[in-house]
Amino acid sequence: MMPAKLIPIETATKDIWAKDILAKGEEFHFSRSVLSRARPKALHNQDFYELFWLHNGRARLVTPEARLALNEGDIVFLSPGHPHGLQGVGEESHIVNVIIRKRRIKEVLARFAEVAQVFPGPGAAPTVVHRDMRHLSRLSAAAKALDAAPRTALYLEAFLLPLIAELASEARDQSVAMPVWLNEAMIAAEKPEVFRDGASGLVAQCGKAHAHVARTMQASLGMTPSDFVNGLRMDYAARQLRGTPDSLSEISEEIGIQNMSHFHRLFRTRFGMTPRQYRVKHQKGVAQPI
To answer: HTH araC/xylS-type domain: from which residue to which, for each copy (predicted)?
Structure first.
């Protein structure tokens, strides 16, 4: 799973709001449609999360950066703040679409970090994954149940979490093929004394040139050494925020990030909220720092 590789284009944008699609009390919207073959006159921006998949045919995902070809079985995960449009290609292009309130994904992300593998932070490029016919058949059955269900958080999570768990499991299985030296270095990098040195701490554990480590990680995991280490740092920071009274500056220093703005930006990208908001939401019975 990795962000789509994009080629620059330019186009106008318009806004679409969750309040215009979701009725009061609805946490998600489900729809099936056939895409128009006309090129989008304008891309649309949105304040909600969204996923859709191409059930049949071909399509083109248009963003400010690129036109990305989609084929039957491709699932696209979209975050707020990244304009896009869709165009059918060839014969009838059938898509299944799920629109989700922003707060729902933020809450799920706060509990399951794996969600960040498919739903990137606000403004980030879409994530595209492919499902073969066996997986697509299972997804279609789950979609049928979702379509018939009440539009509540319970039924949304019953659909969404198994899908994300399946994708995360596949990503983990793919990582088995990585070199032993990289696997061992990544395990070692889970220790604060290693990850507080950033990407260089991980590379030092590998005993290889930085460029070689970066190429190998990109090929094996679809991420850079910095991406991986920053994920470890933010997960550790989240645990400290939940379980200790340490100040934000102390936690930031402990994970090796001296710039508080950078810390806040990384944390918000991973968890969809600031460190302080995360602490207030998750910390119970722990004395708050002055």
So the answer is: 202-281
Q: Are both 67 and 162 inside the same structural domain?
A: yes
Strands 28-34 and 85-100: antiparallel
pLDDT at 125: 84
Q: Does 288 map to a domain?
A: no
pLDDT band at residue 173 under the 50/70/90 scheme: low
User: Residue 144 and residue 30: Cα distance in Å, rounded?
Assistant: 10
Compute how many other C-beta atoms are within 10 angstroms of the C-beta atom of residue 1.
19
145 shares a domain with 256: no
* Distance (Å, whole) CA 267 – CA 109: 12
Residues 103 and 149 in one domain: yes
Closest CA to 154 of 97, 95, 107: 107
Give me the torsion for CA of 140, 112, 49, 159, rounded to 10°: 20
The model's confidence at residue 168, banded by pLDDT at 50, 70 and 90, is confident
In angstroms, rounded to a whole number, what is the distance separating the alpha carbons of residues 249 and 52?
40
- Domain holding 269, by residue range, is 180-282
Task: Please give the single-letter amino acid code of residue 189.
Answer: A
Burial class of residue 96, CB neighbours in 10 A (0-12, 13-18, 19+): buried
Contact by Cβ (8 Å): 70, 61: yes
State the sign of the Cα–Cα–Cα–Cα dihedral 236, 82, 65, 139.
positive
Beta pairing class for 127-130 and 74-78: antiparallel
Number of separate domains in the chain: 2
